[in-house]
Amino acid sequence: MAQKGCCAPIEPRRPGLERAQAPTNVRPRRRRRGLDEWLGGNPVLVASYAVNEQGVERARRLIDARQYVLDSDWGESQPTAADENAFLERHGWEEYAAWHLGLTEGATEHTKARYAFVFGDLRRVHRSALIACVYRAAEWRHKAVELAAHDLLQHLDRTSA
Q1: 46 with 106: CB under 8 angstroms?
Q2: Predicted confidence pLDDT, tens digits, the chain (161 residues)
Q3: In degrees rounded to 5, what are phi and psi of residue 68?
Q4: Whole-angstrom distance, CA of residue 119 vs CA of residue 35
Q5: What are the sequence ranges of the domains in the chain?
Q6: Helices (DSSP H) in 40-115: which residue ranges?
Q7: CB within 8 A of 46, min separation 6: which ones?
């Protein structure tokens, strides 16, 4: 019996074949897609970061001085490019650097690209910023920065308790 169109005729079900069973000797494959697959097969180069000890010390001092915000929406609180530019004009690169937990390896000094993982609003430490730093560093496997941010988060939680 020929059928027009793209589909083959449906065969009637036979008794006893309602539920197909998977072979017992084959385990289902769980495969994690790589980032290059997510981006259409183009390889992705991820920057490397060193821990900015100056930033870690600044965060620790601010936490000890109780200069922190415990409950904030980091998406709303994080400094904008305009905020950063105004801060740079008033304070310079040394102060700007101290607000970041990571230093981009290979990036030119005194450029915004050099500094990563901002932990506050350029006035106070934000708990939500430290959580974002931990999450983002873990996501991209920047273990040293992840651990530094995690330690600061623990210090903040102990101090604010």
Answers
A1: no
A2: 455 555 555 555 555 544 444 445 444 444 445 555 555 666 667 789 999 999 999 999 999 999 999 999 999 999 999 999 999 999 999 999 999 999 999 999 999 999 999 999 999 999 999 999 999 999 999 999 999 999 999 999 999 99
A3: -145, 165
A4: 26
A5: 49-160
A6: 53-64, 74-77, 81-91, 93-97
A7: 140
Q: Which of 90, 76, 51 is nearest to 128 (CA)?
A: 76
Asked if residue 104 lies in contact with residue 115, where contact means CB atoms within 8 angstroms, the answer is: yes
State the helix-helix crossing angle for 143-160 and 53-64, rounded to 10 degrees.
Answer: 10
d(CA 51, CA 60): 14
pTM for the model stands at: 0.73
Tokens of 159: 């101090």
| Three-class secondary structure of residue 50 per DSSP | strand
- Characterize 117-145 residue by residue with b for buried, 16 or more Cβ atoms within 10 angstroms of its Cβ, and e for exposed: bbbbbbebbbbbbbebbbebbeeeebeeb
- Helix-helix angle 143-160:127-139, to 10 degrees: 160
Q: Which helix (H) or strand (E) holds 49?
A: strand 49-51
